[in-house]
Amino acid sequence: MTATVTDTAAKQGVTKAAPAASATYTPPPGRLGNLTPVQEAALAKLTAELRAEGAYVEARHDDATLLRFLRARKFDVPKAKEMFLACEKWRKEFGGKGVDELVRTFQFTELHEVDKYYPQFYHNMDKSGRPIYIERIGNLNVKALYACTSQERLLQQLVVEYESFLTSRLPACSAAVGHPVETSLTILDLGGVSLSNFIRVKDYVAAATHIGQNYYPECMGAFYIINAPWAFTAIWAAIKPWLDEVTVKKVHILGGPSAYKPELLSQIDKTALPKEFGGECSCAGGCSLSDVGPWNPSGGKSSPTASALTEKMVLEQPAHGQVLSA
């Protein structure tokens, strides 16, 4: 699924942090500021080997980036290195022009049409400052979707969004809450989904999952599947083999509103959550197209404004460990 659910820019974002929010922050295990001696040695070894092979790109790589690959491979340096080099090879080859050129030139002109049939969007932050990613697969109209776009372009848009997530959204969220933010909170809404529709897009789902797990590891913090119908047992059986063990542990499958609203509101301020999920946000033109958040405060049309929400979060930032994260 595209909801599969840092670099120099992320570090630059963190330097603008509000001291009041960072005073009580403790980095999660395996992150900068909370590494064991063994983990520090693994990071140093991986960095040295990549530099020696000319595979370390100063403008794009840093300790936080390498740690994502190390965590994904449980700090096994040879395995993390293999994963990292495979990612670099893929970056050069993806789409026939490479990821960097794709980001520079790609225009997803069909966004508004695609949104009608397969809404996928970022919207505000959760209580720990993570960007919220929402996908509504229950709205999926496969025939109409592929009349206005293609699987190839959907995957290209997915990659462009991943790049924006790392270089724009995470740094902005980090600056807003005053400590490094490295993952997202994902909501996958299955309300109205049919098994037949899922089967028709399973190739795209498999490809998107592969990209997320292998080339953008350790970006998912929590994953909520809501409005899961009885048929989801079959869908989950099809999806689960594509996911690694770490990812599966981050997935929380919930039923209807009585099950998911309390859980979502325990993680997300009601002013940041769209009304259809039990919150109070109602963006002009629809939340799915507003792109509201600290990465785009002037572009968001939600109520309250993104800046007001950010101020509220800084004042009410929970202590580390209170927010679900895997």
Automatic annotation (TrEMBL):
Domain CRAL-TRIO: 110-285
InterPro entries the UniProt entry points to: CRAL-TRIO_dom, CRAL-TRIO_dom_sf, CRAL/TRIO_N_dom, CRAL/TRIO_N_dom_sf, PI/PC_transfer
Biased composition (Low complexity): 15-25
Disordered: region residues: 1-32
Entry superkingdom: Eukaryota
Protein name: CRAL-TRIO domain-containing protein
Species this chain originates from: Mycena venus
